[in-house]
Design brief:
Largest sheet: 7 strands, mixed
Strand content: 25-35%
Shape: elongated
CATH topology of the largest domain: Rossmann fold
Mean pLDDT: 94
Strand order of the largest sheet: 2-3-1-4-5-11-6
Number of helices: 16
CATH superfamily of the largest domain: P-loop containing nucleotide triphosphate hydrolases
CATH class of the largest domain: Alpha Beta
Low-confidence stretches: none
Number of strands: 36
Length: about 675
């Protein structure tokens, strides 16, 4: 069945890991009659967490897409992961969501996951609501959590539902607008008398709601201060406008396990939440077809591309253009997704979410549109990977299998990078954190049959010399027939013009014929790939060929290349060689509370602070830090700030390492060389 855009709602569930998002999805699907039983995360049988990694780990790794029908509306639900290593999946979901529901557990209150979810939604200026979950669990504290939400996010946070309790047990729910109480009756709510001892509390929450309603218009403000009650229709109208304009942030509550509060939440989504939009503007149902691809899933059965239609409609067998590549894609089979299950359909309406199989060149963030439009929509911006490890097969010789598996995985996850670094002789994978890389390694094993190990990535040090020397390199070998003869005198000296070798020749009288000069340069260029201290490339070196000799018969390019290499090996140890370490520019954003810890930690990492500023209520610390000290920073910062801190780190320059650090680097290089 196809729905008009006005009858569609696209909702993203966000919040900290284990706060009940996936369980809430189960409850919504069950209440809407999509499923005939409630799946449980602990049992690994939920509709939302269907990836084998999610089932095994008992938490969400990717955004899953479900849909249900309620009150003749279609609600598309995007269940986003709560753990920060998978924030890329949150960005994907928010690209196509039209509102967000932040789930907070009643016994945990406001945590960093809720703070980050608010920040992500604010960045996209998306309407948002809160759902206080797990009211049935021990130590659940609805009042305390609501107070914390209002304190953290402001007075525009207002309750629309509240729990009915008997002793320590939750038995029902109150609709604050109508002041009616309900309890669970199968998949629905049944009205019950409002307990007499709750009247004052309900009135208190109603007044909070009335204040928020009054703020939405001058007319309502006058009515409020005039002491007049708002009608239910006025409240509903104000809620719709206030939520859409991000002036009101309603709070719902319930127990997904009991089904309590879920029908009320579904009612509210259809009544108050906004219709599908694109960049804050209404969609054109009659316009040329256009869709944004927000997620890709690649498995042994092929590739699924998830998309939202933002203009016109998408039908099966339609041919659309990808403006990024200029190529066309035929959408042979299109689907509605229900977790891992797909149902083939003939069309996906404007504002709706669907999936298509077997696209050839389209990737996450791409636009597919009618050739008449041929315009790319805004894509998805992901954070740069900040945690790197070397990756290697447990069984030697399977490097190609790793590369092939990584290539497939990168189709569905654009938040990690993979490089084969010839300098450090390591394959390096970079992602959002240790959990992220662990999941990738598990998928390599389970999907592509290659067992891997992670180890610290080597730092790409450099070597340079500090003084000028003049040395001879002489290669003379007689072995029957033609011999080999090459003789050069080379001056080595430091320079600061370029990292690359500067080669010059100042030969007088043809002591080394001009046709051998390129061989001398080639011998030196090959040699500088390996320094004399720890085997790292030599930079900022100038080499001048000043003299030498040759033999008319025995001299050759190979002989002079070898002679140059001998001069290098003889000269550089005499030229006060030193090791350079890469220095990066670090920018850390943290709440004020953690500033002392950050500065102390920077000192331990040999960091040099550059300055501090304030942005978006966060302290911004900038510093220069040796790259060698930053390998675990992504994990350490998360630990120091309970996940509230973030950072960027970019390479700046090379700088001479302290003497004690140089000795350590040389020792490690020697051990590595002996190990190989």
């Amino acid at each position: 069945m196809s729905y008009a855009t006005s009858k569609l709602r696209n909702i993203c569930l966000l919040g900290h890991g284990s706060n009940g998002k996936t369980s809430l999805v189960e409850s919504m699907l069950y209440c809407a009659g999509v499923t005939d039983r409630l799946g449980r995360v602990a049992d690994g049988n939920t509709v939302s967490d269907y990836d084998p990694e999610e089932t095994r780990r008992k938490f969400s790794i990717g955004t899953s897409t479900m849909h249900l029908e309620h009150n003749k509306f279609r609600i598309n639900i995007l269940d986003a992961p709560g753990y920060f290593d998978f924030v890329g999946e949150v960005y994907q979901a928010l690209r196509v969501a039209d509102a967000g529901i932040i789930v907070v557990a009643a016994k945990d209150g406001v945590n960093v996951g809720a703070e980050k979810a608010w920040k992500y939604l604010s960045a996209r200026n998306l309407p948002r609501a809160f759902y206080i979950s797990k009211l049935d669990e021990d130590h659940a504290d609805f009042d305390g959590t609501l107070s914390a939400l209002r304190e953290q996010f402001g007075p525009s946070v207002c309750p629309l539902t509240m729990p009915v309790t008997q002793g320590e047990k939750v038995v029902g729910i109150v609709d604050v607008v109508t002041k009616k109480a309900y309890q669970v009756d199968g998949r629905k709510h049944k009205e019950i008398p409002l307990p007499a001892d709750m009247s004052d509390k309900v009135e208190e929450f109603y007044n909070i709601l009335a204040e928020c309603v009054a703020e939405t218009s001058e007319e309502f403000m006058e009515k409020y201060f005039g002491g007049e009650e708002f009608t239910s229709d006025e409240i509903y109208s104000a809620l719709s406008a206030g939520i859409a304009e991000c002036d009101i942030f309603p709070v719902f509550c319930g127990s997904a396990f009991m089904g309590l509060g879920t029908p009320t939440l579904l009612d509210a989504i259809t009544k108050f939440f906004p219709v599908p939009m694109e960049d804050g503007k209404p969609l054109d149902e009659n316009g040329p077809a256009a869709a944004i691809v927000y997620k890709t899933v690649s498995d042994q059965y092929g590739k699924f591309s998830f998309f939202k239609v933002v203009s016109g409609k998408v039908t099966s067998d339609m041919v659309l253009i990808n403006p990024r590549t200029g190529s066309t894609e035929k959408l042979s089979h299109i689907y509605k997704m229900q977790g891992k299950k797909n149902v083939e359909v003939n069309e996906i309406a404007c504002g709706d979410i669907g999936a298509v199989s077997k696209l050839s060149v389209t990737k996450t963030g791409d636009t597919l549109c009618d050739s008449k439009l041929n315009k790319a929509l805004p894509g998805i911006d992901f954070d740069e990977p900040c945690y790197s490890m070397a990756i290697a097969p447990k069984v030697k010789g399977q490097e190609d299998k790793i590369a092939a598996g990584i290539s497939r995985l990168s189709e569905e996850d654009l938040t990690f990078t993979f490089v084969n670094n010839p300098e450090t002789r390591q394959m390096v994978i970079s992602g959002a954190g240790d959990m992220h890389l662990d999941v990738i390694c598990s998928k390599l094993k389970n999907k592509f049959g290659v067992d891997v190990v992670l180890s610290p990535a080597r730092v790409p040090y450099r070597e340079k010399i500090c003084k000028k020397v003049k040395v001879q390199g002489k290669h003379k070998k007689q072995s029957g027939g033609h011999g080999q003869y090459g003789d050069v005198w080379v001056e080595f000296e430091p320079q600061d013009e370029t990292e690359d070798l500067i080669f010059e020749e100042k030969i007088f009288g043809g002591s080394v014929p001009r046709n051998f000069h390129p061989a001398v340069e080639k011998g030196l260029r090959d040699s500088i790939q390996k320094g004399v201290l720890a085997g790292y490339p030599v930079v900022y070196l100038k080499a001048t060929l000043v003299d030498g000799s040759y033999h008319e018969v025995d001299s050759s390019e190979m002989a002079f290349k070898t002679a140059a290499s001998l001069a290098y090996k003889a000269g550089l140890p005499q030229a006060s060689p030193v090791i350079l370490e890469p220095i990066g520019h670090l920018k850390v954003m943290v709440p004020d509370t953690y500033l002392g810890d950050i500065m102390s930690d920077l000192s331990k990492r040999r960091g040099s602070p550059l300055g501090m500023s304030v942005a978006d209520g966060m302290q911004v610390v900038e510093a220069e830090v040796p790259m060698a000290e930053m390998s675990s920073y992504a994990i350490d910062l998360r630990s120091m700030t309970q996940g509230r801190g973030s950072f960027t780190f970019t390479f700046s320059r090379y700088e001479e390492a302290p003497a004690n650090i140089q000795q350590k680097i040389i020792k490690e290089a020697k051990a590595l060389s002996e190990g190989e």
